[in-house]
Amino acid sequence: MSRDNDPLIRLGGLEKYFGDYHALRGIDLDIGAGEFFSLLGPSGCGKTTLLRVIAGFEGVDAGTVAIGGRDMTRVSPNRRPTNMVFQSYAIFPHLSVGRNVGFGLRKVSGDAAEKRKRVDEALEMVGLAGYGDRAAHALSGGQRQRVALARALVLRPKVLLLDEPLSALDKKMREQMQVELIRLQRQVGITFILVTHDQEEALVMSDRIAVMFEGSIAQVAEAEALYRRPIDRRVAEFIGVMNFLPASISDGVVEVAGLGKIVADDLQSTAATNGAPVAGFRPETATILFPGQDAPGRIAEGRIAEVVYYGDMTYYDVRLDGCDKPVRISMRNVFGRPVLEIGAQARLSWSPGAVTLFC
Amino acid sequence: MLRAYTLAFLVFLYAPIALLPIFAFNSGTVIAFPLDGFTTRWFSAVFSNRELHAALGNSLFVAVLSAVLSVLLGLAAARANIRYRFRGKTAAMGLIMIPLVLPEIIVATSLLVVIVRFLNLPLSLWSLIAAHVLICVPFAVAILNASFQALDPALEEAAIDLGETRASTFRRVTLPLVMPGIVASLLISFTISLDEFIIAFFLTGSDVTLPVYIWSLLRFPKQLPIIMALGTLLVLASVLILTIAEWMRRRGLARAGKNDSGGFL
Q1: How far is A125 from chain B (nearest CA, A)?
Q2: Where is the ABC transporter domain (chain A) (predicted)?
């Protein structure tokens, strides 16, 4: 990731309405050259609309879109240095793979041999060398995805826009393509902007992530910061799993239901919420103590309500004394140590800095 | 039982058509069994009849122009219907489709009144073309609606994204992909116009079309075998056109890699 002082893309005060529906609300965002950036949010949050605004398929009611220092707000998509990989891939069914990839080269200068070379290079880059003469409709989902990538990258855009590109693939294929997309982005070195509703996908792939809700950006951060220091409860709930317990604050002392009084060291950060104060912690920041282990000042008692065994990991739902809703704890399985059973007594402890207070 | 019913149904449907060639080659002028003898006289009469040729020429002229105009209008209407949202769309589409269910006799009389009384235009093949476009457009729109419906809007966006203009996108992406629909609606419109009688009967002046000419022949019983010969030729032409249409349709499907979900044949 390299970020200059001048961002490649600068979005300022974007507003977009579809009739009465307020789709984008005051979007301000800078995206750097060579960055792998994700727009993450639940469906209907405006992430796809924002991507289409950057591509030029949607106009805006207010605000500006600048790409490479030039105002592109009213520039049509065919004149922007952006190319898109569509959710449906939009492979032209009446053209061969090679003609699909070479589709945009018609308006690019250069002779036929040179263009053919560019098509071959693009196909090789996505692992489809020698597929040029195949019929587009005879391809599998993963192959279509690669053709769509090659077709966009062959034009050497400054920005590649990806609209939920992996959502149509099965799990194995999706994980494989995630790795390939990261490799591809490093190889070509241009900015990738990915739209996804899958937080795991965003965390795995992106340099930075913008989390969107209801047409506005809630938080822009690197993956780890987003996970560790969510700005508010919505972000914390959307990214990964977080256990929430009612909390009360009096004279600067925080008391959490089920956990008891929390020492200052354990409070990692505070974040916003629109309800009553709650304390949150991630499943992997707590652990179930085994007989003989101790952790003074960081002990909570409870009973195991559910065990989900994943081979390398086990997820325990633990009902803490004084709490109705169980909290989820994830623990790495260690060879020679048995997995606990439902109903067993459990002493819970948590790491320093594990707790985020939402107040 | 079902088998017998199906057989009876097919006989009822196709036996009259099978009679056409039988009597077309029969030397007697009376259309009845037993047959007299074999002759190709009626076919030579068809090929030498000037009036018939003129009528056929008129019909082809009307049918070709009606089909082309209907499909052009149908393309615009279907694309607007599927791709855009605008006020009064439902009403507009409804009005376009109404001629489908409107009795032709009503269309014919009202158009006659409008053209002769209000517009003071002489009746010509052009007035007939206008009327045929009116009744063919709904068929073209119905077929092309399906074509545009099956077309992923992202395909057109992808073309624009890759540097094409709206016009070149239509040429390079939209047109090739809806081509099977265009061919199908051209053929349907052509066929409808070609055998349309009622409106043609009302709106043609001195230039009659083939159906109107055939109707006029019916008054002369001795000409009846000529109609049989002509009918035989028309059946052959229809089968040929349908075969071409179906071949085009299957080729279109194969190119787009879609599954066959019915068709003409």
Answers
A1: 19
A2: 9-239
